[in-house]
Amino acid sequence: MADRDTTKAPTAGALALADVEPVPGVPKPDPILVVDKVKRSFGGLTAVNVDHLELQRGAITSLIGPNGAGKTTFFNLMTGFDRPDTGTWHFDGHDLANVSAYKVARYGMVRTFQLTKALTRLSVMENMKLGATGQRGERILASLIPGIWKAQEAEIEERAEELLVRFKMDHMRDELGGELSGGQRKLLEMARALMVEPSMVMLDEPMAGVNPALTQSLLEHVKDLPSFDMTVLFVEHDMDVVMDISDWVVVMAQGRIIAEGPPAAVAANEEVIDAYIGKGHGDESRFTPTPLAGAPVSAAVEEVAPPSADEGAEDLADGGADLDGPAEGAGPADEQPGGRA
User: What is the mean pLDDT of residues 317-334?
Assistant: First the structure.
């Protein structure tokens, strides 16, 4: 595959972040999402414990961290799919505490999932049209009067067609969602999310399980979102992807924000490296054998010389008794390992 083009025109959000100090919880010039004291525990396990976080409007921000760091739980909390134990968060001026997921989407914050949610028995076009909000025909009584919703339905289908063309899926408009490949479902889910005309898109591992042939296409679509006045927050484990498309990187570990900043600064952060690789990386003393408890520290391993040719000849002269039979003074055969009575 051809080398990935790592050149990217800076977004408005990236330019706004140019002078922001790369420290956890740092204020942003124009935040679209502000999170304070959000905590979520499951039994004795604290999955998310975010003291303060701001996301810059118009920027592409990646949320990274080891498996189990709390990234998807954080997504669920922000978008109304779960409730935190404590804390507040505001999106574009809206207090989202106790707001249902469908209302969060109406405010302009939409998300995708690690496992795609395409409706397998509906066509690609029908999947797209379901993403549009405020449809008059959704009400039972109004649905019985086509004059109420017919014109709007045509507008929605036209917008869906434009997005399918943009995502190069217009030739698949009549195919069932269940007939698409994993990568095509990812494209469909992203395109359907844009039917809401959101101001912020949250992508949970958009590249996971995608055929390399479609990865570049997905990347280009993500890069393109800020040009449509959208802010992007995405979870990704592929650090090449993170370094390629991110304006800002936020790092989670054990539910906490441990670092944030431009990609290059985060990649060189010792605490981030510790979170991924473990503390003491580069310390060769980690590989020095430790004596067993009770063993003399200075005890050396006695070298055993290999048998000489003469010793081998003597063994053969004795008929190989040491190899084939029990040693002198040994008990019955049933007392020997694997012996037979």
Answer: 44
